């Protein structure tokens, strides 16, 4: 009987070990990332500072990159002074540079966002301090500067919008009526409350979300600003099915238009109507700094918002370290569906989000971690790109960098499912074989 009891115990232990091993194997499979390869890494620039801020896939299978350049040598063509200019580069489907253009005047002009228009040209947005060269008007310290371009980068029209302060355009979309919606930060204090098409009620202060609706010729149809008495900065916008707009960014305010502040800075999402009226607003985050940088529509009628968080409470259930990329899915009414944190034990952030061809999402940003969701770090700060499924599960990630600071500000899936990411690099080691100046425009492709 003792021997039978012994064998029975051994059998139970064996079954338990098998179950445990199966469970561990299942968890390992769930955490296993898809292996992706780097097709190429390029740095472009001159002896001073360059950066890529936005990338868009083009209808011919290639892509266009917008950023800014300070140099007058190296890879930069036809630039006559060392002030910053918008820098636009067009690549074909074989990653060959087809043409490049610089835009601006004799002062500080920096490109931040690019779209391809329905007719095949481009629209570019950022800010300008110039009042010469390509820029015909200036109203203050910085103005929104928008240019409509043809297919070869020639200017069709250009417009400046702003007041006496630092007004910076961050995002542009083409609207369903073939016009444009641009958004960025308005220095409300310096504007003296100007910037609304309608009579303003409570006087705001600091920086506010500023939305400007343009027709197809760049003429202003209306403008409205939203926020409170502290710092409210919008970084991205999408148009909704009902022709309204969702604008996302960060807010440090807890008054005027902001009713549910969670902490220091929050993801702040607003819905405005087709004519710019505030329909609703909501905040996501915790007690620390949380900033939303991008928004896209999902294939099921909802929206995905990407940014970063330093919180570990309230809406943020998990923080892997100092800061994480923080992704949320919400309904068209702003109700939270799910939330996910990605990163390691150091500082990790998301700066853009775009749709992949299979219904997932591509996020670009930067990482200082080499653990958790981040498998490798080459130095101080690496450019970081990762893909999540439609349910928010991590599928793959890549870091690119050297011993200095390397950042990714945009990434897009091309027609062949490869991903082109852009940003800036100060390294000349690790993955980065050449540095041409202080900081270079960085391009890398993931297959």
Question: What would your notes on this structure say?
Answer:
This protein has helices at residues 2-31, 188-191; strands at residues 38-44, 50-57, 63-69, 85-91, 97-103, 109-116, 122-128, 143-149, 155-161, 168-174, 180-187, 207-214, 220-226, 232-239, 245-251, 266-272, 278-284, 290-297, 303-309, 324-330, 336-342, 348-355, 361-367, 382-388, 394-400, 406-413, 419-425, 440-446. With 447 residues, the protein is mainly β. The protein has a single domain (46-446), classed as Methylamine Dehydrogenase, Chain H, CATH 2.130.10.10. The strands form 7 sheets. Strands 1-28-27-26 form a 4-stranded antiparallel beta sheet, with no helix packed on it. A hairpin with a 5-residue loop joins strand 16 and strand 17. The longest helix has 30 residues, at 2-31. The model is unreliable at 1-30 (pLDDT under 50). This is Bulb-type lectin domain-containing protein. InterPro entries: Quinoprotein_ADH-like_sf (IPR011047). It comes from Jejuia pallidilutea.
Keywords:
single chain, 447 residues, mainly beta, Methylamine Dehydrogenase, Chain H, four-stranded antiparallel β-sheet, 2 helices, 28 strands, 8% helix, 46% strand, globular, disordered N terminus, Bulb-type lectin domain-containing protein, Quinoprotein_ADH-like_sf
Outline:
8% of the residues lie in helices and 46% in strands. The protein has 447 residues and is mainly beta.
Please count the helical segments.
2
User: Number of folding domains?
Assistant: 1
Characterize the biggest β-sheet: 4 strands, antiparallel
Order of helices and strands: HEEEEEEEEEEEHEEEEEEEEEEEEEEEEE
* Structural class category: mainly beta
**β-strand number:** 28
Which stretches are low in confidence, meaning pLDDT under 50 for 5 or more residues running? 1-30
Mean pLDDT: 91
Radius of gyration, in angstroms, nearest whole number: 24 Å
The neighbouring-strand order within the major sheet is: 1-28-27-26
CATH topology: the name is Methylamine Dehydrogenase, Chain H
Question: Approximately how much beta-strand content do the residues carry?
Answer: over 45%
Helix content class:
under 10%
